[in-house]
TrEMBL record:
The lineage of its organism: Bacteria, Bacillati, Actinomycetota, Actinomycetes, Micrococcales. NCBIfam families: bac_cardiolipin. It comes from Brachybacterium aquaticum. The keyword Kinase does not apply. It is found in: Cell membrane. InterPro entries: Cardiolipin_synthase, CLS_N, PLD-like_dom, PLipase_D/transphosphatidylase. The keyword Ribonucleoprotein does not apply. Keywords: Cell membrane, Lipid biosynthesis, Lipid metabolism, Membrane, Phospholipid biosynthesis, Phospholipid metabolism, Repeat, Transferase, Transmembrane, Transmembrane helix. It is an enzyme of class 2 (transferase). This is Cardiolipin synthase. Pfam families: PLDc_2, PLDc_N. It is a multi-pass membrane protein. One of its GO terms (cellular component) is plasma membrane. The chain crosses the membrane at residues 12-34, 43-64.
């Protein structure tokens, strides 16, 4: 009793010593805990944050420092990956031509090892870069459905631009087509009344739908950091027609008043597919459906014989995300960058590479490869925009040409073309979030005709951009340099 009274009488002194003790303990524990199985840059950034203010930094690390799904969900991932390997056996493999470079053959083997899917031949692929036209074409494809429509978008909302898309879904559902819809919980829910309008419409027509990666921290029996997201964009009709790329199902200004005031709108690239590769998209959708619904879809409806095999493109789907052991998309990009001999053309709205990717691009430019990077002149995300700017000096000094897509458009397309030999297109940005935290879908495509289509798209983007020079960049205000570098440090905290 006397001790407790003494504590009450001297609470300021006791509180000071207690705070100091906790401060020291947190610093020591973080030195052991943080560097474990973590990139050096990320570990240093977290340690700096914790050492600066342990009482705040350490709890943040416990919430956001683990880029891993809960154990129960990882077990699901292993089961699904094994199932994908088993089911993908029914998708015919395509042999690469003999004159294809050996590095491309090794990329195909790498993708098969990482993501389970084979290289398929006899595929058709068309590109669409007009925002509203892509939605109209998707709606038209949906209306041809006879049995199933599978829809997965990071962001989905019912607004004046997407209403025909949702009208198409409800029309086919009402005539007996099975429609399954997935959307990222945070990516869609954050759009308020347009999200609620969408869910009400889907419910009214008895369309089965689920939010992906719902923000329920202990849903799978262990804490899951809230910013692990499903960023994929996929749509499959009857297992015969597939769409994928960078575009979400929402108006081009994302229904945000701030974007409308600034005149911001998004520029996208989508690819429409026919042929055996559509079954790979269907299998990938089925994995996410299983995660959220616990329903395993029938293989007979997922892997179907393609009705159109007139195409000449070789395609391979590459999934990635926190459910995989390795960073599939990063490994593929780096493999291609290090083996490029003539050209690299990279389009990414959020370019925050890790050390390995930055080194791969700089090395390629230094050894004579023509490297072009397409990014936006302005940004919609302060931290990422300024973090990516911090890499421009090193890239420009190495000889990389940087094209700034003119404001007020945000270039949101995501694709890479290597040596006029292969393209990777999909939902994956070239940033640490896409490598570690987001579930992504990429498509590797080979074929001379498709490369010509990609060059036409890149020519359009180049015509709408201005080239950033090293001289111009070195003259930017010092305060902007400081902000860029500070944001680069913060972006490493993953």
């Amino acid at each position: 009793m006397a001790l407790w009274q003494w504590v009450l009488d001297n609470w300021v002194l006791v509180g000071t010593y207690l705070y100091a003790a906790v401060d020291v303990v947190l610093r020591l524990v973080s030195l052991i805990l943080v560097p474990r199985n973590r990139r050096p840059g990320s570990a240093l950034a977290w340690l700096l944050a914790i050492m600066a203010l342990p009482i705040v930094g350490f709890p943040l690390y416990l919430i956001l420092g683990k880029a891993q799904l809960p154990r129960r969900r990882r077990i699901k991932q292993r089961d699904v990956t094994a199932l994908m390997h088993e089911r993908a056996v029914d998708i015919p493999d395509s042999a690469l031509d003999e004159d294809v470079p050996s590095w491309l053959q090794s990329a195909v083997r790498l993708n098969r090892e990482l993501g389970a899917f084979p290289l398929t031949g006899n595929n058709s692929a068309d590109l669409e870069i007009d925002y509203d036209t892509s939605i109209a074409r998707i709606a038209a494809d949906i209306r041809t459905a006879r049995s199933e429509v599978h829809v997965l978008f990071y962001t989905m909302a019912l607004d004046e631009i997407t209403e025909d898309f949702f009208a198409a879904l409800t029309e086919v559902a009402d005539r007996g087509v099975k429609v399954r819809v997935l959307y990222d919980h945070w990516g869609s829910m954050s759009h308020g009344k347009w999200y609620r309008a969408m869910t009400r419409l889907l419910d009214a027509h008895r369309i089965e739908h689920y939010p992906m990666m719902p923000i329920k921290p202990f849903r799978d029996g262990a804490f899951q950091r809230p910013d692990l997201r499903n960023h994929r964009k996929l749509l499959i009709i009857d297992g015969q027609v597939g769409w994928m790329g960078s575009q979400n199902m929402i108006a081009a200004h994302y229904d945000k008043p701030s974007n409308i005031r600034r005149g911001l709108h998004w520029q996208e690239t989508m690819v429409r597919l026919r042929g055996p590769v559509v079954s790979e998209l269907n299998l990938l959708f089925a994995t996410d459906w299983y995660y959220e619904s616990d329903e395993q879809l029938d293989e007979k409806t997922l892997v179907t014989a393609p009705q159109d095999t007139s195409g000449s493109y070789e395609c391979q789907v590459v999934p990635s995300g926190p459910g995989f052991v390795l960073e599939n998309n990063l490994l593929l990009f780096n493999q291609l960058f290090y083996n490029a001999t003539r050209s690299i053309r990279a389009v990414s709205p959020y370019f925050v590479p890790d050390e390995s990717m930055l080194s791969a691009l700089i090395t390629a430019a230094r050894r004579g490869v023509e490297v072009e990077l397409f990014v936006s002149e302005i940004g919609d995300q302060f931290l990422v925009f300024h973090a990516q700017r911090s890499y421009y000096s090193a890239l420009l000094e190495a000889g990389v040409r940087i094209w700034l897509y003119r404001a007020p458009t945000i270039l949101h397309a995501k694709h890479v073309t290597i040596d006029d030999s292969v393209t990777v297109i999909g939902s994956s940005n070239m940033d640490i979030r896409s490598f570690i935290l987001d579930m992504e879908s990429s498509l590797m495509v080979g074929g001379t005709d498709f490369m010509e289509k990609m060059e036409e798209v890149e020519d359009v983007y180049r015509s709408r951009s201005r080239e950033l020079t090293l001289e111009e960049w070195e003259q930017r205000p010092r305060i902007m340099q400081a902000i860029d570098n500070l944001c680069r440090l913060a972006s490493s905290v993953v």
